Amino acid sequence: MKKLCLSIAYLLMSATMSWSQNGTRLIGFDALTTGRGGTSTAFFDNPSLMMNNPAGLSFLSTSQADLGFSLMAPRVHFKNDINNNYGDKNLFPLGCLSYAHKSSSRISYGLGVFTQGGMGADFQLNHALFLDGEGVYLAQPYHSKFAVMQGGGSIAYKINDQISIGGTANLVYGQVAFQMPMSMAPSMLQGVIDPQTGMKFGDLFQADPSLGGLGYAELIASANLHGLNGFAFGGKLGLAFKPSDQLSFGINYSMPVNITYRNGSAEMDMTGQMNNAFGRIVYMILQQYPGTTPAEAQQMAMGQFTQMGIDLSKGVSDTYNAKARFGLPQSVAVGTAWSPAKKLRLGIDGEWINWKNAFDQMDISLSNGTNVNINKMMGTGGSIEMAFPMQWKNTVVIRTGIEYDVSKAITIRGGYAYGSNPVPPATLFPVFPAIVTDHVTAGVSVKLSTAFKVNAAYEYAFRNNKTASEKSLIAAEYNNSESSLENNIYHISFSWFIK
After folding, report:
1. Which three-class secondary structure string do you get for the chain?
2. Given 39, 236, 304, 416, which is the most exposed site by the fewest CB atoms within 10 A?
3. Fold (topology level) of 2-270+318-439+457-498
């Protein structure tokens, strides 16, 4: 039995880590909870309390094992001056495995592996910099993945018949990947062109053409960061209060988690940017020397790059070792569940999520680059430090749910959840589309025997359209752009009751 459980846990982790990309934080960790709108802080009835309120484990009616699967089908869309595209129709499987032991003493415990959530998208989009010889756009890949899992144990201590406290200690695993044209400020090019004047490559690229510069407000590199993964420790503290069989209250605090994602690779290619810069220099030469032929102007431009220490034959692409740093937010949830009639239960949760501290920026570190041209322009020995802006806002989530026992074997559920959008207009972009706010859910449980129950749920996140600010902090291509996301999520879980 132990080997079987370990094998199932490994398969769940493998599937989730490989494919978990979604644009919304999960509102529930199993079909039962999701079916009633994610209300869970004061519903003391399943092992997902490990993630929602570990103190509630004390009030389980019996020991229980759960195995759950979810299938996400997000739909993303992006629109700007040169794009009006839907993203790929991706399907992402998720999974959870948990066991809670109800003890006859004051102490209960649980063990489990849970999908925390993530986000991601895939597009093929036009970019103003990438054109063929005839001026036709060459579509570029835009991809992201942010996947998180938590696994660990919980313990609950029943102080008396009405009050319990509990805690969860988790090992958190995360993956991060990005592929897209990435914007950099010209000031990042700190390499010196002329030691006598102190002029840097950044000065050349950003100075106005009337002053002999190239006039760039941003520089673009085709970037592909992948293989980044990291581990960290997290924890939860909970309080459960059940004054009667009809009424219960709960409080849950989730600690912040700081993760450094390591062992990644990054391919950075500035060929498109340098080709554009070369073209601008050729144009400037033709304007300055009217009798010059295009071929002569190109030769003169190559000579200028050579004088600056750039050997164009060696290109401007490289592969780096990569790591990134950003965390998961702390949160506080409070909830109540009430049974006004024997077969009817109502619940409401409120949760504050501290995205502002966790998702302020993603610090990206690249090292061991060997391309002499990039190193010359950057003024480093092969390292690049970037702060990718996010600047998310704190959010409040309200989850409401209802469940009704149709019979001794069948329970139906429904729910609605609202969470304010954490992504500000200045950092809205299509491959990190965490902007949905409204969810409706429906679910059902069928008890096939005294020891086995099947739960199913459907969750729909309504399409939300958001417009980026006039001046994006991510890249100019997102200025005044529009991103949208909707999501269909299908859940099924299996519960075994162990007496």
Report:
1. CHHHHHHHHHHHHHHHHHHCCCCCCCCCCCHHHHHCCCCCCCCCCCCCHHHHCHHHHHHCCCEEEEEEEEEEEEEEEEEECCEEEECCCCCEEEEEEEEEECCCCCEEEEEEEEEEEEEEEEEEECCCCCECCCCCECCEEEEEEEEEEEEEEEEEEECCCCEEEEEEEEEEEEEEEEEEEEEECHHHCCCEEECCCCEEHHHHHHCCHHHCCCCCCCEEEEEEEEEEEEEEEEEEEEEEEEEECCEEEEEEEECCEEEEEEEEEEEEECHHHHHHHHHHHHHHHHHHCCCCCHHHHHHHHHHHHHHCCCCHHHCCEEEEEEEEEEEECCEEEEEEEEEEECCEEEEEEEEEECHHHHCCEEEEEEECCCCHHHHHHHCCCCCEEEEEECCCCCEEEEEEEEEEECCCCEEEEEEEEEECCCCCHHHCCCCCCCCCCEEEEEEEEEEEECCEEEEEEEEEEEEEEEECCCCCCCCHHHCCCEEEEEEEEEEEEEEEEEC
2. 304
3. Porin (2.40.160)
